Protein: cyclic-guanylate-specific phosphodiesterase
Amino acid sequence: EAKQAGRNALRFFDPRMQQAVQERLRLEDEIRRGLTAGEFVIHFQPQIERHRGLVGAEVLVRWQHPQRGLLTPFHFIGPAERAGLIEALDFVVLTQACEQLATWAKQPSRAALTLAVNLSASLLYQADFVDRVLALLKRTGANPRLLKLEITESLLLDDMEEAVVRMRTLKQHGIRFSIDDFGTGYSSMAYLQRLPLDQLKIDQSFVRQLVEDASSQTIIRATCALASGLKLEVIAEGVETEEQRTLLIANGCDMFQGYLFSRPVPLEAFEALELEPVT
Ligand code: C2E
Ligand code: MG
Ligand code: MG
Ligand code: MG
Structure:
């Protein structure tokens, strides 16, 4: 054991290790600074319904870094989680989304657009989360019915009962919930019964294999049947080709998000998009 500890101690003082630790701390400081400086911004990726065209967007966070340029979540979500900064970051995103909904409410052509925001487990489980969200809605005047919170199956592992209670309360106020990356987690069926959900979001891995792999078609068809039986909306993410979209429609999925329609874009570009119904 002493030998083990000695080895660990040696490894700790390995200069490369030390450099990695320092880089991590520097990044955490940077995120903290970026949050204060308002460098985290939201981009919008359109969500399209087959018959209605553009119905809303998913909000995706970006970091407008002064030296490194525009960074995607890959570069900072993990570090923000480890540093205990993800709750603050998510709340900044949620705030911007609510402010945008309130702005659109005054524009007839955009007043019905919905926004979907990704929610991390640590924010959901924060003691005053529900109160903070309700206060935010009140302050911004955003219509809760146009706000959708995306949660992942892994988020539920922490404390399912507590998650259900909080989701129910928010749902009573009109907020909707979507299960992100659906089909990639573990106990899909059990929680489908217990959670107050509104939407299943088919993970992009199934969409990617849709054309070559018949089993993906079967999985998507089954997911759509399940969703329809449970009166849940279903949306596919990562739709990149017309062929995928056609197969999704053939298998019962009428809502799409993906590069075929648009990448996530800043507000001005999103508002300039003209997305027509598919049929
Ligand atoms: P996600 O919520 O599953 O979001 C979908 C991701 O797939 C986005 O990556 C989006 O840009 C990308 N995507 C969309 N359409 C396509 C497509 O057709 N093809 C391909 N290959 N990719 C597509 P992004 O923006 O890099 O975000 C990655 C992940 O970071 C998100 O996955 C989400 O889990 C997380 N994330 C993003 N914004 C937030 C946030 O505000 N808070 C938290 N906690 N997580 C966030
Ligand atoms: Mg998402
Ligand atoms: Mg997803
Ligand atoms: Mg994902």
Notes: The pocket of magnesium ion (ligand 3) is lined by residues 180-181, 201, 237 (CB under 6 Å). The chain has a mean pLDDT of 92. The longest strand covers residues 53-65.
